[in-house]
Design a protein that fits this description.
Elements lengths: L3 E3 L2 H7 L2 H16 L9 E5 L2 E10 L3 E11 L7 E10 L6 E6 H20 L7 E4 L3 H13 L5 E4 L3 H8 L5 E3 L3 H5 L4 E4 L18 E4 L10 H6 L1 E4 L3 H4 L18 E3 H5 L13 E4 L4 H18 L3 E3 L2
Helix pairs in contact: 1-3, 1-10, 2-3, 2-10, 3-4, 3-10
Pfam families: OCD_Mu_crystall (PF02423)
InterPro entries: NAD(P)-bd_dom_sf, ODC_Mu_crystall, ODC_N
Protein name: Ornithine cyclodeaminase family protein
């Protein structure tokens, strides 16, 4: 195909086959853990109303891509922000552009896929209820993926807006709206934090023994409390999650004690690290987002769109 394939939001979403994205994201996380992926720390230009982040990356076998994403406060909804942008996929052999895709759709499912992999790999080996905190785009992406992969496990959904919480819960056949975050979290075996919080949305004393927490929000501040970070085994996508300052690194993982280990999730997925050590201590996957995951999802969307004949080819 000559030219650049452009997929609009609906076409990007349709091309992001969830099972293939799960497989590609696992491949990307393992590549990161082995030092095989090339992706510099995210940088951002600051504007009065928000920021524009830049995330280029290369993953062997998946490709070369870059994401431009804006994170701006939503004037219509106090305390919420929008994440909009584009992902450009390039040929890794000669560098010519292959495709332009909607970043919001792509980011939602690749982030949910990484969070789900963390739960599958690190949750204690016993069944239990799931909690999802948040009712925005990322929480909805997480609920949709859980509904596809595990439609029977009970899910409690909590957020600030009861109407939005009920709408999000409707995406999963076994989900119910909880009255608040504490009610959702207490007794849950897995907690997905998918919020735009600037302050922690969970507390250590809410967490059940052996809980796994997956935190993918917190672009503007800590989503997880310091006591949970202190007590949990910590897992991330890449070393910069704790070694780099925000916006590349996580707010929660700054200034960790030197003796506090942080393990790459890909090393657990590849079998080189055992992951959870016991059934009673908490585990925490703190996601900052990583360009390798964008590459993985863009690879899937491009392959599916080409196969199905979707999108518009333009000369760029």
């Amino acid at each position: 195909m000559s030219g650049v394939l452009v997929l609009d939001r609906a076409q990007t979403r349709a091309a992001l086959d969830p099972h293939r994205v799960m497989d590609a994201v696992a491949q990307a996380l393992i590549a990161v853990s082995r030092g095989e992926a090339s992706a510099p720390p995210r940088v951002a230009a600051l504007a009065p109303g928000g920021l524009l982040g830049v995330m280029p990356g290369y993953v062997p076998g998946l490709g070369l891509a870059a994401k431009l994403v804006s994170v701006f406060a939503d004037p219509a909804q106090a305390g919420r922000s929008s994440h909009r942008g584009i992902v450009a996929l390039f040929d890794p052999e000669d560098g010519h552009p292959l495709a332009l895709l909607d970043a919001e759709s792509l980011t939602g499912i690749r982030t949910a896929a990484a969070a789900t992999h963390s739960a599958l790999a690190l949750a204690a080996p016993r069944p239990g209820r799931i909690a999802v905190l948040g009712a925005g785009a990322q929480a909805r992406a997480q609920l949709a993926l859980l509904a596809l992969l595990d439609p029977t496990t009970p899910v409690s959904v909590a957020g600030r807006d009861p109407r939005r919480v009920r709408s999000a819960a409707g995406l999963h056949p076994a989900a119910e709206a909880a009255p608040n975050a504490e009610a959702a979290v207490r007794g849950a075996a897995v907690v997905f934090c998918c919020t735009g919080a600037v302050q922690p949305v969970i507390r250590r004393d809410w967490l059940a023994p052996g809980v796994h927490v997956s935190s993918v929000g917190g672009s503007h501040g800590p989503e997880v409390d310091a006591d949970t970070v202190r007590d949990a085994l910590l897992f991330t996508e890449w070393p910069g999650a704790h070694a780099a300052a925000p916006p590349a690194g996580a707010y929660e993982l700054q200034d960790l004690p030197a003796e506090k280990p942080v393990v790459l999730l890909g090393s657990v997925l590849s079998g080189t690290h055992p992951g959870r050590r016991n059934e009673t201590g908490p585990t925490l996957f703190k996601s900052t987002g990583h360009a390798a995951l964008d590459v993985a999802a863009a690879h899937v969307a491009h392959a599916v769109a080409v196969r199905e004949g979707w999108g518009t080819v333009v000369d760029l």
